[in-house]
């Protein structure tokens, strides 16, 4: 029978007798397309001898933990545990405390410094002349006990102040000395004020400014570490929530697939379904069973990640428990504009705060280097009050005293001879006292150390000195190099700021896009 006749018969059989009167159009059958030859890669012979193990499948449970009861965990508690456990955060806090101590140390440059120097000196000198000699033209000794008390300080404006009180007690057997025991004392006040270099910035001000900025930078580093810890805990927590929900969804799908497979078996036995439907349902059961095991693996991995963030002890019982998040996710937040998200990142992100701290440090270094390039011009003022008191020297071995004594006696003898011839109203008075009294210091200087201090208080013997000190190096390559380096550092921070702003915009755009996709999925 030809193909045309075959199609005619089929048409009659399908459409009934009434269709026999219809014209039959000839149909040309096309030959089927040939089956393509598969391209199979060469597979090496590996795993020789492997056989699928027979027996029951492993339990659908998480390894290393008890299936029940699960330990409920709130997000706030998880964050608190992670912050207390985080060693990096502890180190950041320690660095912050160290930076605070460095501020205290930098302020030490402005502390008032007190220096006390007690001293004792014993000297034996050879005789030099009849006045600088000991008794009988021998060696003379001098014993000096002294105390120097000095106070110095520096102001925040760069002014340096100092005050020194020096008091001594000196005893000597020098025949020509005015005092056998003397008490010299002095009070000196000095002031140095930079007029050019050092008037705007100096080592102390730079160190204090950098220490303050460093403490702020360490605070920002601590906040950054804390925010990263919070973000890591929150991500792991909500991922665990999603994957526990995924386990529940896959279990529900598995139960439905299993029920469908059992229904197909009953239909086949009743002759209402083909055996292939049972095979398809069994394959679907296996697919969902695989999905349950995969979901449990994800839960186990996320639980271990979260426990690693929270627990500091490998023996903590929480390692052997399932974690059940109890915090309600709430509603999805509204979608913010990207520009608002970028502005919020600039205000709140610790990375940008650290960049600002680095900029402040660079600006301090630029100001310091710029001031160091200026010439030196310092005004110095010194005020000194001197004093001396002591016990007059009455040593009879003083040759000048002996010579003057002879002259005194001769003069008095001449006066006496002259007075014999002079009337009573014209008598010449004789020299009163002795030559030794003439050589002694004035009686106002007689006394001890208290007398010397009294003279200091009255400023009886002052010395005032003022001067300007100018200094101009012919070349100042150190300051020039430091200034160029500080400016280059400041310029590099500009580039870093641009890069950080670009990073913020990219992250904000990605976050808003993820939020938009999530809201779509929740709405669907």
Structure summary:
The chain is of the alpha+beta class. It has helices at residues 3-15, 75-85, 87-107, 203-269, 275-310, 338-348, 350-372, 399-421, 435-439, 449-458, 477-523; strands at 66-73, 113-125, 140-154, 160-172, 179-194, 321-325, 376-392, 461-471.
Spell out the helices and strands N to C. HEHHEEEEHHEHHEHHHEH
Mean pLDDT comes to: 84
How would a crystallographer describe the biggest sheet?
Answer: 6 strands, antiparallel
Structure summary, number of beta strands: 8
The helix tally amounts to 11
Report the sheet-strand fraction. 15-25%
| Strand order in the sheet with the most strands | 2-3-4-5-7-8
Through-space gap between termini: 59 Å
Predict the CATH topology of the domain at 71-158 and 202-329: Outer membrane efflux proteins (OEP)
The named CATH superfamily of the domain at 71-158 and 202-329: Outer membrane efflux proteins (OEP)
CATH architecture of the domain at 71-158 and 202-329: Up-down Bundle
Shape: rod-shaped
């Amino acid at each position: 029978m030809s193909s045309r006749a075959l199609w005619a018969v089929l048409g009659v059989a399908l459409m009934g007798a009434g269709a026999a009167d219809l014209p039959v159009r000839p149909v040309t059958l096309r030959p089927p397309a040939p089956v393509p030859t598969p391209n199979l890669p060469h597979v090496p012979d590996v795993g020789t001898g492997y056989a699928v193990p027979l027996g029951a499948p492993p339990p659908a449970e998480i390894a290393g933990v008890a299936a029940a009861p699960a330990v409920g965990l709130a997000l706030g508690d998880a964050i608190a545990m992670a912050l207390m456990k985080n060693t990096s955060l502890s180190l950041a806090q320690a660095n912050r405390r160290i930076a605070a101590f460095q501020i205290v140390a930098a302020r030490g440059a402005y502390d008032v410094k007190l220096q006390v120097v007690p001293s004792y000196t014993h000297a034996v000198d050879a005789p030099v002349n009849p006045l600088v000699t000991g008794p009988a033209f021998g060696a003379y000794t001098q014993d000096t006990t002294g105390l120097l008390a000095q106070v110095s300080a520096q102001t925040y404006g760069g002014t340096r102040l100092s005050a020194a009180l020096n008091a001594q007690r000196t005893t000597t057997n020098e025949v020509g000395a005015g005092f056998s025991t003397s008490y010299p004392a002095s009070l000196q006040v000095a002031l140095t004020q930079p007029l050019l270099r050092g008037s705007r910035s100096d080592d102390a001000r730079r160190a204090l400014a950098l220490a303050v900025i460093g403490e702020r930078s360490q605070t920002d580093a601590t906040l950054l570490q804390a925010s990263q810890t919070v973000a890591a805990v929150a991500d792991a927590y909500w991922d665990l929530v999603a994957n526990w929900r995924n386990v529940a969804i896959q279990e529900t799908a598995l139960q439905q697939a299993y029920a469908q497979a059992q229904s197909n078996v009953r239909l086949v036995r009743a002759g209402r379904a083909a055996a292939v439907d049972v095979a398809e349902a069994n394959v679907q059961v296996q697919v969902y069973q695989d999905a349950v095991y995969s979901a449990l693996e994800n839960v186990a991995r996320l639980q271990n990640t979260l426990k690693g963030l929270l627990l500091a002890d490998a023996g903590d019982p929480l390692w052997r428990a399932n974690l059940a998040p109890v915090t309600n996710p709430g509603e999805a937040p509204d979608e913010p504009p990207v520009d608002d998200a970028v502005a919020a990142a600039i205000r709140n992100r610790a990375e940008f705060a650290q960049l600002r701290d680095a900029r402040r440090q660079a600006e301090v270094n630029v100001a310091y280097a710029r001031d160091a390039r200026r010439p030196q011009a310092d005004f110095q003022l010194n005020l000194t009050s001197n004093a001396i008191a002591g016990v007059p020297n009455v040593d009879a071995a003083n040759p000048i005293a002996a010579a003057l004594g002879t002259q005194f006696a001769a003069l008095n003898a001449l006066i006496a001879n002259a007075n014999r011839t002079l009337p009573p109203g014209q008598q010449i008075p004789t020299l009163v006292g002795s030559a030794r009294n003439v050589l002694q210091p004035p009686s106002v200087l007689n006394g001890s150390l208290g007398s010397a201090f009294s003279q200091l208080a009255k400023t009886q013997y002052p010395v005032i000195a003022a001067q300007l000190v100018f200094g101009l190096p012919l070349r100042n390559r150190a300051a020039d190099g430091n200034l160029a380096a500080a400016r280059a550092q400041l310029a590099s921070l500009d580039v870093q700021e641009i890069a950080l702003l670009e990073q913020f915009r990219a992250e904000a755009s990605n976050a808003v896009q993820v939020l938009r996709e999530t809201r779509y999925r929740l709405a669907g």
